[in-house]
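ZP: hey, is the flavin-adenine dinucleotide complex queued? I don't see it on the tracker
AM: it wasn't, my bad. submitting now with these inputs:
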Amino acid sequence: MIRTTPFHPRLSELSTTGLWSHWAGYLSAQKYDMSAKHEYFGIRNSAGFFDSSPLYKYWVRGRDAERFLAGVLARDVRTCRPGRAQYTIWCDDAGFLLEDGVVFRYSDNEFMLTAAEPNLGYLRDLVGRLDVEVVDVSQDYGVLAVQGPRSREILARLSPDVAALPYFGHTRTKVGAAAVTVSRTGFTGDLGYEILVPAADALPVLDAVIEAGTPYGLRPFGEQALLMARIEAGLLLVDVDFSSSRYAWTDHDRVTPVELGLRWMLRGIDDPERPFVGRKALRAEIAGGTSRWATVGIVVDWQDWDRVWTQAGLVPPKDETPLDYESMLYDAEGGRVGYATSFMYSPVLQRHIGIARVRPDHGAVGSTVGLEVTVNHQYETVAAQVARLPLFNPERKTA
Amino acid sequence: MSQTTPTRAAKSREYDAIVIGGGHNGLVNAAYLAKAGLSVLVVERRHLVGGAAITEELYPGFQFTTFSYALSLLRPDIIHELDLVRHGFMPILMPSSFAPMENGDYLLLGPDRDENLKEIMRHSAHDADAMDRYEHDVERVCQLVKPLFDRVPPNLFGKSPEDLADIAWLRSHLGDAPPKVLHDAVRMLTGSAADFLDDYFESDILKGYMASSGIIGTKVGPMSQGSGLVLLYHSLGEHDGQFGAWAFHKGGNGGFTQVLARAAQAFGVEILLESEVDHVVTRDGRAVGVVLGDGTELSARTVVSAVDPRRTFLELVEPRELPTDLVENINRFRFQGTSAKVNFALDGAPRYPALGDRTDQYRGFTNIGPSMEYLERAFDDAKYGWYSQRPYLDCAVQSMVDPDMAPPGKHVMSCFVQYAPYHLRGSDWDTEREKFGDTVQATLESFFPGFGDLVLHREVVTPLDIERVVGLSEGNIFAGEFFAPQMYFFRPAPGWSQYRTPIDGYYQCGSGTHPGGCVMGAPGKLASGQILADLRKE
Ligand SMILES: Cc1cc2nc3c(=O)[nH]c(=O)nc-3n(C[C@H](O)[C@H](O)[C@H](O)COP(=O)(O)OP(=O)(O)OC[C@H]3O[C@@H](n4cnc5c(N)ncnc54)[C@H](O)[C@@H]3O)c2cc1C
């Protein structure tokens, strides 16, 4: 029997579509409203809330917690001060990506790690003799993301501490009577927050957020709107933009952080004081320049897009629904140079955009690649420019 | 080039081009000219650019789209060519259309096709698939007509190789169309909205809702021949590839013209505010500059009028310098504005009894025009020189989707009203302004009981106000009626539809030129192409 999150009793009342998907064993709204696009507009123009509760959550605690995580995670968690969070990854010893998540540092020796997939066994296996406990608290909390330009004003009405939170900061605070953690994090690339709330308090907190937010146009949004926003934001999605090395059958389906555009996470990789899983392989990759891919944004040439469809007697489609398949990329001679892993029409940018993997020699910003599209059941190629991720990056996100 | 900021004194006495009027067409025109490397000055009479597309805080905390309020016809290529996204272009598509009925029922159309069909079936099972057929047929007509929209109209009277090539293009473009599509186009262009809609639909509410697009801004009723053309015109817009889709721009249509101004300035355009052009200076039949109201003379090789045809030909230059035919044509060019606005600051969202506490129905247009008969009767008043006693209203509560428009929990409501003829029989608009406002408010009260209690502030905008403030003659919102003899190669006058004028170096790019009014930018863009082509020839 499918489970429901602590917010579900209220969310099910808000759903006008009855469209739910199964996410990590829970019911998760695809869209509350007939049109996901309008939920997306809510995120970009006012504010929306999303139920992220199905994420896995682990307390990592103990005297050696920092040392433990510094050895598991590829990004140096020692640079994360209490009250801060980091987007992070962990790799296998070949330097291939296993997963990504967010680590929240509560104190010197207390962290919470979130992940899309179960990781308790993996983490515990790596503890060895360290003084660390890893506890799965996935079911103990609900997580409510409140995202969009008005999110700060809305949450500050409930908890004034929120107003001062820096990007990727978090704080223990109260919403009504409930003790919560509010972090300035999210998956939309906009100004936004996530509220971690004990399951028993989830409903009153949600109700308070709705009440505070309604005058500002706050509305719920489902997975479909989230998945649009995250492509614009250049946020990678497991099983779409990469797969976990552990479950891949061949290296074609594996990717390293450098290849995924996450080289910036490896700052300090040469520090001998911090051995971590995959370090040796990653250093060799960097030193040898052996990366097979660069991960880039692509922005389709609008005139070329219109041309191929109009010539075929069709109305050029501008569909914000992300494609659920890869699109091949070619060079001027028709040679294959990569593929787009995510692709959509972005209403904010008014362009077709994608997240793509290209051969490193084609990764220069501004260079042109040919994107394969199917028009009238025939392959056509449209020009696209390589661009820096994220493609949509409003000042308010970090300001 | 570095970004300029609007000024109140021109930085120079000499420009390559001076654009008269900082409405959206003037800005678009200026931006394209500057992008091509010209030094360009836009001269705007008011303290802000945008013309009929502005947003103003007329009541503390409430942002009013004083005049135009929604966006659909903007040509998509302008968005890209002027890099508008970088300057904040942000249309918020309307998810729904709400049409209250006099018996308390309603038609509420949303983003889901099947749900819409079910909603239509509530009123008429017959009309459900009619809707699909109607939309498909109209989209095909739009596909046929759109290339005409985006090109300079051919000069039917010209004999040059270019003219002949243009005419040949038109003939082959229309000749390639399937007979049904061409016939539908002619039915729409010449007939009434009522006749066209009657061919598909039977339900009053659906027909009233659809026919409303056939009367906007124009002195026709849905049963008048010619309303089909207005209906087609309003179907030609698009957003994100969806034909006929409408949006509220972030910050209202004034938010949009501010984006345009920033884009123009980024190309180097200089904007001069609070400066009226008194007249265009000509020498030997050639425009050489402009004189401002304060006597300042500025020179330019190219002068572009972005105001309406009456001002372009009869006020900014001497009609005596123009061909008599043209002067006669402009003198009989019909303006006869018939639209008004009543804008409200509201303490909360209006309540529609049949929908209880719901407010999501207000995320798009709310259309008070429950039947074609209702619309036609509203028109009857106007025929005899009076405003409608039961007016047609197109209402927009922009703050429902854009919290920047009003304080939290409060709302702005923009009501576009017809009919309000510019010429009142036996009275004038200064006398009637508030009585007219009361008539509109009483109509709203009849659909939304308790509406009056929500009103914090009311702003009545009559056709006279439109003329006085924006400068649109007789308050015609499109700078000239959408009548067939005033469209395409006849807009604004036969022989002068290609943005040139009989005075060398003097051009026109306002809504009185092809394709016409609405926030679309096409006149401004098409004119810039002609100007640049002429400069290359010189
Ligand atoms: C009430 C109303 C509602 C409307 N609603 C919509 C809508 O919802 N959607 C839509 O698409 N369209 C709408 N329209 C139509 C649309 O707004 C206009 O067609 C369009 O904005 C006209 O743009 P323009 O640049 O051609 O001219 P204008 O906007 O008229 O600009 C002309 C400018 O020239 C200036 N000017 C005039 N004379 C001089 C001078 N001598 N010297 C210097 N400056 C001068 C004026 O101050 C003005 O700024 C509406 C119009 C009105 C009036």
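AM: back. DSSP finds nine helices and 19 strands in chain A.
ZP: great, adding it to the tracker
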